[in-house]
Amino acid sequence: MQRAPSRTVSFRLSGSQWQAIDAEARKRKLSIGDFARQVVIDACDKSGEETPTRELLSAVERLRDHFKKAVVAILADAGKCDVADAETWVNANFTP
Fold first, then answer.
1. Which SS3 state, helix, strand or coil, does residue 70 take?
2. Alpha-carbon gap, residue 73 to 67, rounded angstroms
3. Which terminus of the chain is less hemmed in, N or C, by CB atoms within 10 Å?
4. The pLDDT of residue 37 is above 80
5. 63-78, pLDDT tens digit by residue?
């Protein structure tokens, strides 16, 4: 099956939008261009299926949530602090 030829897309972003996309790209260790391309592709995907990028981001988010819950449980179970203090500490130290 032959793919349609690709075409170039170009656009400008305001300073705050540029900073936001730059920060997200750095978090994912991608260039700004590669990250912007993936965002556009994901937004245009009309299949309704999860894209590999969305699946990965969802999996990472679930892993973060599980990790945070585990650390809260360990701190509270060890008697180092109560659950509320453990949650406060985890949210302050493990939020991207």
1. helix
2. 10
3. N
4. yes
5. 989 999 999 999 999 9
Rounded Cα–Cα distance for residues 65 and 80 (Å): 21
Encoding tokens for residue 56? 């990965």
Strands, E, within 35-89: which ranges?
Answer: none
pLDDT score recorded for residue 30? 86
Q: In angstroms, rounded to a whole number, what is the distance separating the alpha carbons of residues 83 and 79? A: 10
Q: Which residue has the tokens 């449980």?
A: 73
Please report, as a single letter, which amino acid is at residue 11. F
Report pTM: 0.47
Cα separation, 69 vs 51, in Å, equals: 27
Determine if residue 9 is left, alpha or beta; phi over 0 gives left, psi from -120 to 50 gives alpha, anything else beta.
Answer: beta
Query: Which H helix or E strand runs over 36?
Result: helix 32-44
